[in-house]
Amino acid sequence: MAKTSVGLDIGTHSIKVVALSRGDKSPKLISLGSIVSPMPGIISDTTADLEALADSIKKLMTAVKIDEKEVVVALPESKVFTRIIDDLPYLTDSELTSAIVYVSEEFIPMPLTEVNINWQVLARADKNNSVSSKSTKTIVLVVASPKKVTAKYVKVLSMVGLTPKALETETIAVTRSLVGNNPFSPSTLIIQFGSQTTDFATISKGLIWLTRSISSGGLSLTRSLAQHFNFEMSQAEEYKKVYGMRRDQLEGKVYEILKPILDIIVGEAKRVIQAYEAKYPADPIKRVVLSGGGAKMPGLVIYFAENLGLEVQDADPWYFIEKDKDLASKLANDASAYSVAVGLALRED
């Protein structure tokens, strides 16, 4: 029997929701929608601001006619601590737990009693240490979520009358929607453009092998345009969306203003690719996927392709999802912006 699965992406710029019907066949889109986040939204700790955010989520859920009360929600990369631990030998389950706790103390800048630690074993060293791809070591993806952060999300959801089925990172959700568990997908670098941060993840065989996050996001680009042209932020945002990285528009002025910040992101992408390929030289990155609300900026795909020398494409989280024909063209315009919400809705129980 088909059941409904709901992904809720509470961003600082916008809130997005996706409801999928999950049965024996391909997932089918039931409903989706987005609404502008009230400011300061989830960043704030005051009850009044969180109530305003809850009201916006309620309006969105009502507008798109989603009655399901259980939702899967994303935690922003900027609020969690993610690390790939890739130098462990073969360990029993209990030894592995102890090792992860010990290593976590090195990269989590707060007492471990104040975080929830989850991990996924990506590769397990063979007990007899026989050589096979990536499995001469035990490699673990560790995610630590501050309890205060998760409590705030749970509080907002309770104000809406919703229950969190799960809380997971944006990167994990995006990986699921764009690559999934398809073992035939080429090794991929996903670049997720958020409003506050840009997040990077290298994916091979459906698994995350390296992650990084930097504080240059969509807002940095908009602010740069606003300062240069003396615009309101809303007008600067419009210029970014219309002209983007097209050198043939407005004498290339918008291109030249955005270029220094995008070069920071390109430079980080190069470092991530180099770091991954240094560890796994037999499995080089073959393509780059641009995801998130800022990924549709004109000229962005070409700019990254020219600078990285790789195949670069827009994210399409709807590729494997069944949908009505009249929705297909509408979805294409905002496809990459829904990568997180779709990935959340695709999470298995």
Automatic annotation (TrEMBL):
UniProt signal peptide: none
Domain of life: Bacteria
Pfam families linked: PilM_2
PANTHER family cross-referenced by the UniProt entry: CELL DIVISION PROTEIN FTSA-RELATED (PTHR32432), ETHANOLAMINE UTILIZATION PROTEIN EUTJ (PTHR32432:SF3)
Protein name: SHS2 domain-containing protein
